[in-house]
Amino acid sequence: MGEQPIFSTRAHVFQIDPNTKKNWVPTSKHAVTVSYFYDNTRNVYRIISLDGTKAIINSTITPNMTFTKTSQKFGQWADSRANTVYGLGFSSESNLAKFAEKFAEFKEAARLAKEKSQEKMELTSSPSQESAPGDLLSPLTPESVNGTEDERVRPGTPQHAEPRAEPSQNALLFSHSSSNINKHWEAELEALKGNNAKLTAALLESTANVKQWKQQLAAYQEEAERLHKRVTELECVSGQTTVIKSQKTELNQTIEELESALRAKEEELEGLKAEVESTNDFRSQKDFLTQKLQHTESMNQALEARLSDLERRLQSNQQQREAFRRSLRQLLELLDGKLFELTELRDALGRIIESS
Predict the structure, then answer these.
(1) Which residue in 1, 41, 3 sits closest to 235, CA to CA?
(2) Distance in angstroms (rounded) separating the CA atoms of residues 303 and 297
(3) From CA 12, how far away is CA 28, in angstroms rounded?
(4) Which of 57, 140, 143, 191 has the most crowded Cβ, counting Cβ within 10 A?
């Protein structure tokens, strides 16, 4: 099945400055996804985070790791394999507490997995250690070649009870048996010497081969370490498929939201363009009305000047009429006086006529 994400959160990622060992250096420009992964093939837990396609965290959880809360929203842990210290800045205290809880949980799980692995190694190594002595060549002894004292037939001692022979015949049989036994032991000794020489040569050859095998083993170990690092890098990239998919989904959602916002902005822009066009129409109308107003004002000023002139002429006419009226009154008064004088003169003439 490979690695599967079992818990994910978002945080700002930092690493300790390798030069000062004091200052924090940000490895992400914004909050990224930080996930716990479980590799069921190797039975290990890892913390992995990607910034785009770059792995900024690839830390295997071991039983001796400790996650420390340094503030309400910041925590850190040291990774001796990566020779660095990672720091995470969370958006809330609850996210930090949840991440620390998961860290302790997976740390305990890593400890139990390590203990089980050690127990399995001890169980598999115990039968091989017990069977190893049996695989070695046992030392050659006379008992192993010819049997034990009980199994070996003693010289001159028959296995079955036979009738006692003559003394001379028994002595002849004993000497013949002794010579056969001596020849047998000499042949066995020669065979043992030959085997010993072969074993010595094989031992020397094995010693030389062991040195060569050690060199080959060191080369194989270096190659295996290089391949393991390469596999880890590939697993880091391939194990993030789900995280990449989730990030891709988030990015697609963000793109859709931005596209919808862009469409809304374009519609708003079209509306603003229409408003600008209407504003231009209003401006042209305003300019026309302004010109018309200026023309009207100029006509109004001309009419006001004409009205003022007419008012002045009217006032002058009124003054003339008033002067004419005054002169008419004076003339009437004068006529009245003259008429009165004529009337008196007529009366006087009438009286004179009457009296004469």
Answers:
(1) 3
(2) 9
(3) 6
(4) 57
Residue 103, judged by CB atoms within 10 A of its CB (0-12, 13-18, 19+), counts as: buried
- 138 DSSP assignment: P
C-alpha atoms less than 13 angstroms from C-alpha of 147 in its C-beta half-sphere: 6
Paired with 50 in beta bridges are: 55
Q: Show the tokens assigned to 234.
A: 């590939």
Mean pLDDT of 50-75: 91
User: What digits encode the pLDDT tens for the residues 261-302?
Assistant: 888 888 888 888 888 887 788 888 888 888 888 888 888 898
Q: How many CA atoms lie within 13 A of 151 on its CB side?
A: 7
Q: How far apart are CA 64 and CA 110, in angstroms?
A: 10
| 78 closest CA partner among 117, 121, 107 | 107
Q: What is the pLDDT of residues 294-306, one digit of tens each?
A: 888 888 898 989 8
Half-sphere exposure of residue 269: CA atoms within 13 angstroms, side-chain side: 6
* Separation between Cα atoms, residue 3 and residue 55, nearest integer Å: 15
What is the spatial distance between Cα 241 and Cα 5, in angstroms, rounded to a whole number?
Answer: 10
C-alpha torsion 308→314→319→324, nearest 10: 160
Triad 36, 40, 44: Cα angle to 5°: 55
Q: Which two tokens stand for residue 91?
A: 């958006």
pLDDT at 166: 42
Q: What is the CA radius of gyration of the chain?
A: 65
Please tell me whether the overall predicted TM-score, pTM, comes out greater than 0.70 for this model. Answer: no
Residue predicted with more confidence, 316 or 194: 316
